[in-house]
Amino acid sequence: MGFTQLDFYPSIAGPFLQKLAHKVFIEGYSMNRIIGRLLVEEITLGRNTAVAVMDESHGWAWFLTSDAHGRPLGIPYSIQCTSCGCLKGIKIQRHSDFDLSAYCRSCRYMKKIQVPQNNFYTREALDGRDGWGIQVLWGDLLDRFPNGKEAICVTDWEDEMKAAKLVAKLAQKEVKGIEGAEDMDISSASG
After folding, report:
1. Domain ranges of the chain
2. Could you tell me the pTM of the whole model?
């Protein structure tokens, strides 16, 4: 286990590590099942760093997702506008699940937030609520989180959007084809 932030303060991890040791060694929880819940409880640690857990089969970095705490979809974002320097002027706007932008209320500067391809999220995190996600460093990609919740990533979402557009186009062509057939029937009946 490790922490991913370069300027990490070890004292921040004390309460988290104490709770983790108690849950794993005393209560018998699996580390993979409990880390996400503990990160949501430890907002200070979750706002500062992700927690990397690695073994021979996979490498995962667990991270907090919270719009309120400056980590939309787990991406650390400054509360200071990079354009005008205004403090606490940044507002995160969600256009869809993976389409986010940071908007400054003072100077109206807007910047698109890039979501990493190998991050997986819970539905709560995508809806803007506090949650957690997993970045796959190596190993198999996720279908489900260790607690059984569905794991959703950008590529899954993009594939669903492409499929939905294709279905809509096919339905539109089918409707046009039916309308064309009706026109043919009408013209052939009059002749």
Report:
1. 1-70+118-150, 76-114, 154-191
2. 0.68
